[in-house]
Amino acid sequence: MAKKEKIALTPEERLAKMDRKREKRKIFGETFLKACALFLAVVFVYAATYVAFGEGRTVYQSIQTNTGTVSGGVVSGGGSTVVGGGSGAAATDEAQTAADAINAATKAAVDGGAGYTWARTSEFTQNVDVGGATSTLNGIIQAVDPNASIDSVVGGFIGIGNKTVDIAKGADAQEAIGYHGAYYKLKATSLQAADLQNLQVNGDTYTFTLPDANTPKRDGGTALNRLTEDIVVQDEVSAEIQDQVGSALEVTSLVGTYSNINVTVVITEGQLTELRYSYDATVSELGLRAAIIPITGTGAMHTEASYTNFVY
Fold first, then answer.
1. From residue 252, how far is each of 146, 230, 236 by CA, in Å?
2. How many other β-carbons are positioned within 10 Å of the β-carbon of residue 10?
């Protein structure tokens, strides 16, 4: 069989053929790069999803598990909003809105003389411990009151025990509560956005925690004191102990921490209908002086208080 003769191309035809090859290479290169980019994007999304939500869970499944969507530090869904977990403007705005609502509602209740039921329960979680000085202190105290002890004296001024008082509309809450009524009555709060940690809003109900308070004073310098006056202050403790047992026992120092401060507030149509709080208080240093003998004590308590059954 005769060999097929190769047809010679004119210069113009060779140029056209080369142009077609270049065009094919260009198209192939662009297609390859696009395919690579798409592949890398898929890998990146998969990796990010894996890290964020765990193996075997889709984005949808993870959002459903968390019952909401996340935006700017705010998780919402299922009729509730969780504010926090970020420093976004949305979280700050939500917390400020909540603080403003609570401050306005408590102020209106106090200024309007609303009636309510006040209840408080407090118990030692660690009795007052003054080491080997217990018998000495009890001897001093029982010389004044044979039925008293260091636990009952200290427990008295920090409100150990249970108490419930119904305060009529327009009544003097401090007078109705009686002992420590100035500290236990409802306060017009002055909460700030930063005070409301772990804030959750569910309809009319606000729940949140407050940051720990270290030896707070009655100057509004802590979130706890911006919520309530239910705190223990050294000069008041000293005055009350001396009222009970005379000058033989003096308080020289008081250092403590309030922690696990949980708060629930319910506001319905702008009116306060419920306020509850609880905390743990640990006294790491209660300095006492019996005659000229210095003594250091410790102790701890858990307290729960509520304001309910409001009448406007």
1. 25, 21, 12
2. 8
Digit-coded pLDDT (tens) for 254-306 = 999 999 999 999 999 999 999 999 999 999 998 988 777 888 999 999 999 99
Q: What pLDDT, in 10s, does the model give residues 15-32? A: 666 666 566 555 545 554
Total domain count, the chain:
2
> What's the pLDDT score for residue 192?
98
Higher pLDDT, 12 or 60: 12
Within-domain flag for 1: no
Residues 6+ apart with CB under 8 A from 311: 114, 115, 116, 168, 169
The answer to the question of residue 75 being in a domain is: no
Asked, for residue 253, whether it belongs to a domain, the answer is yes
Whole domain around residue 124: which residue ranges? 92-311
Verify that 43 and 188 share a domain, yes or no: no
Residues 6+ apart with CB under 8 A from 50: none
In terms of residues, how long is the chain? 312
Domain match, 103 and 198 both: yes
Structure tokens at 133: 């000085």
Which segments within the chain are labelled E, that is strand?
A: 69-71, 74-77, 80-83, 115-129, 161-167, 197-202, 205-210, 213-214, 249-268, 271-290, 293-311
H helix and E strand count, the chain: 9, 11
Contacts of 260 (CB under 8 A, 6+ apart): 209, 278, 279, 280
Tell me, yes or no, whether 60 and 122 share the same domain: no
pTM for this prediction: 0.71
